[in-house]
Design brief:
alpha/beta; 48% helix; 15 helices; D-Maltodextrin-Binding Protein, domain 2; two-stranded parallel ribbon; single chain
Length: 342
């Protein structure tokens, strides 16, 4: 999902200059301060946006004002591919990326996003315990540093009509980003109709029925009000919502060991709090959306099996191309042992 977070979450919030000005006043070091521009494709008024602002403020505090961070909210820096290009050119110094942007740095990470493979938080935790150190090691050999990884909830299917099994979705047009090629390959292999869409015009496209389904994190749908148009959510998570805050190495090297350690510690602490609060955030979002009329539909065990069978049939030509074959197999073995109680 190179542009997926902008697609999955939104690009509605406008950047306000106030946060940067506030940080500059906290014991600011003037010309000696290191400015870090953090690009984010999520709205400022979302839980993600507020958490990023909090992290930026903490960077200033733990470095005694030596770091002045400013979050550029709402996708103003463009797609995740564009953010990566800006990071390499040092036009921005840090960014919030999803697994689709991260896959441009460490391609193996896409294996965590195979639809319907990992089923819940417990399974995800077990998988990450085994595979995240290897992914971090691969990241260490690049020009980027992951300050923290986040497992902020799950992506669900939203639609204008009820969807319980694959054939229901085949009658619809599902919005997707043209840059989300990895996930698009899976959905095309399952026979779904995809329509390129930008989150900036998602509302009008849904209202005009140009698209009538999309995949999103519920905690992002509620603030945008899209549930009032789509009306239905399938209560079967598609994939975990993975993300990371990444900083380019040229900036990382400028910070020095003491500042690096302080910034990494506070970033990981806040991200852990965010992840821990995400279930409550999603529950609250669902409560609001159901109060507004959203219908949450749970597929039967037989219907859930249909989804997983469809994905399995679509996977063979994608292994070794879209998804790393070795890591996909390893995740499968971890899950099999867990489900067998081993």
């Amino acid at each position: 999902m190179k542009k997926s977070l902008a697609f999955c979450l939104a690009a509605l919030a406008l950047l306000a200059a106030a946060p940067g000005a506030a940080f500059a006043q906290r014991g600011g070091r003037g010309a000696d301060a290191i400015e870090i521009r953090v690009a984010s494709p999520v709205p400022r008024n979302s839980d993600w946006g507020r958490t990023l602002d909090r992290i930026a403020g903490e960077w200033a505090r733990v470095t005694g004002g030596a770091v002045q961070a400013r979050v550029i909210h709402g996708g103003l820096e463009g797609s995740e591919a564009r953010m990566l290009s800006s990071l390499r050119a040092n036009n921005i110094q840090a960014a919030l990326l999803t697994s689709f942007g991260l896959a441009e740095i460490v391609p193996e990470i896409m294996s965590l996003s195979v639809p319907f493979q990992i089923r819940d938080d417990d399974e995800l935790a077990q998988v990450l315990e085994y595979v995240l150190p290897a992914l971090e090691g691969k990241m260490g050999g690049t020009n980027f540093v992951a300050l923290t990884w986040s497992t902020a909830g799950w992506v669900n299917l939203f639609s204008r009509e009820r969807v319980l099994e694959p054939n229901d979705l085949r009658r619809m047009r599902m919005a997707t980003s043209p840059d989300s090629e990895n996930m698009n390959n899976v959905f095309r292999g399952m026979g779904f109709t995809l329509v390129e869409a930008d989150m900036l015009n998602m509302g009008p496209m849904l209202a005009s029925n140009m698209v009538n389904a999309l995949y999103q994190n519920p905690a992002a749908v509620a603030p945008l009000g899209l549930h009032r148009t789509v009306g239905h959510m399938m209560c079967m998570p598609i994939a975990p919502f993975m993300g990371a805050i990444v900083i380019n190495r040229v900036t990382w090297d400028r910070l020095g060991p003491e500042r690096r350690e302080a910034m990494k510690e506070v970033t990981r602490r806040i991200a852990a709090e965010f992840d821990a609060n995400m279930p409550r955030t999603v529950d609250s979002a669902l409560t609001v959306m159901q109060r507004d009329g959203l219908q949450v539909n749970t597929p039967s065990p037989q219907q859930q099996a249909l989804w997983r069978d469809e994905v399995q049939r679509a996977m063979p030509p994608l292994l070794g191309v879209t998804f790393d074959r070795a890591l996909y197999s390893r995740i499968g073995m971890i899950l099999e042992r867990s489900r067998n109680g081993q």
